[in-house]
Amino acid sequence: MTKSCAIIxxxxxxLASAIRIASKGYKVDVYETNSIxxxxxxxxxxxxxxxxxxxxxxxxxxxIDELFVLCGKNPRxxxxxxxxxxxxxxxxxxxTVINAYSDVDKFGDEIELKTKDTKxxxxxxxxxxxxxxxxxxxxxxxxxxxxAKNFLNKRTAYGVLNFHKIDAFKSMxxxxxxxxxxxxxxxxxxxYANYVGSNPFVAPATLNVIQHLEINLGTYLPDKxxxxxxxxxxxxxxxxxxxxxxxxxxxxxITEPDSKKRKVIGLKTKNHELIxxxxxxxxxxxxxxxxxxLPKEKAPEHILNQPKSSSLIAFFWGVKNTYEKLNTHNMxxxxxxxxxxxxxxxxxxxxxxxxxxxxxxxxxxxxDAPVCCENWFLFVTVPNDQGQNWDELxxxxxxxxxxxxxxxxxxxVEKYIEFEETLTPSKIKESYxxxxxxxxGNSSHNKFAAFFRxxxxxxxxxxxYFVGGSVHPGAGIPxxxxxxxxxxxxxxx
Length: 493
Ligand SMILES: Cc1cc2nc3c(=O)[nH]c(=O)nc-3n(C[C@H](O)[C@H](O)[C@H](O)COP(=O)(O)OP(=O)(O)OC[C@H]3O[C@@H](n4cnc5c(N)ncnc54)[C@H](O)[C@@H]3O)c2cc1C
Fold this sequence. Notes:
The chain is α/β, with parallel strands linked by helices and 493 residues long. It has 15 helices and 20 strands.
């Protein structure tokens, strides 16, 4: 008889898991609370504009491609993307503008031209983060940390012998300061801590590997926007026989005692007391998986109560104008990043001078905005939801954002805003069932943070697996896809 598996949640890791398990011959059903797939990787359309409203920075596209190859399909029949030649443009309060080029020689020349640092120092830095990546990737990202035999191979031995090179005992900021003297370069590199919702003045310098993905390996953009990743994966999953149940919240994972330990027998939804399955993969945040779906299991409180990542206040603007000065991805930096991160992580509030990220997908995807218009998705970093007054903070954020944009781009942007939508930590919490609206799960401040993420399988319940940004190896599209890949390696078919 064909074996069955339920996936709870259709985030990027849930979809990758559905495809991987369907390719093993299982009958796979995906349950999703929302009316569409994708979770935080979401989009919306209004007045002729389309907005990606979650991830916008896309690296390691091969992790998407390999899902199609696994199913015997050509990825290019489903999705195409472009390697961005100038992935980012960085704006500073003193008028300096640094272009990040995918050609690292050109990027090095730009650093030498616009800052007090040298191309040589930049190239040395890129080599260092590549080394860190090689030491950590196989041990911490591509395999389970919760299976003893994974520590008994050559790669791990290499990792252990080279442990001193990953700078686990320095902060990202101190790591960056050891290569550069110009605060502009250090701020640019510290900014990558935002990619894991953490503070670069606290998080270990090991995390400078994040820059390796973007600067050394390249930043990509799907030619039809980020949400086309989800459309392509849903199409592939359906072709593999996966069934999607939208607007359906799973309320409990049902287990029963087995000879040695418990095992899953199925799940409960509002309309069904028990739908039987041989295996279950939860893509729901691990905190809620234990608190809501497994009320009878003892929860691993020390893991669930780890400090959470930051969140954001975002604005989506239909802009009736075009801005030549802007790139697809842009950062308008705070005048003082140390004070900015202190406000978010120590004072638990929005900085008085937040850095602003502006993503204009219509620069690349022409259909994303009407002619002579642009779709701006901009955000500032804020703490996760601890009951702050978000209405007040949205007003404060908007004022800072408008003033900084007008100052740096020499414009009067409000004249051109056709409409505006907002996203806050409390909306993120409700929309994607994300605890505290923390967009990257646990923060990465603790140098042992990797060991405080939940494993991709249950040690107590047979047939139960966990994937997504809240479990090993962490959040962001590449890591979520790796969580599904690790689950696949340990899935007992
Ligand atoms: C605004 C924003 C910007 C970001 N920018 C980037 C970026 O540039 N690059 C990057 O790589 N990452 C970025 N991220 C992070 C990235 O989006 C996430 O790490 C990733 O998408 C999380 O995927 P996931 O598989 O964990 O599932 P989620 O996206 O968390 O989805 C989980 C899904 O499960 C569903 N669900 C939960 N519980 C149940 C239940 N009981 N029953 C049924 N369904 C359920 C939810 O409705 C949801 O659809 C960003 C996130 C946000 C919010």
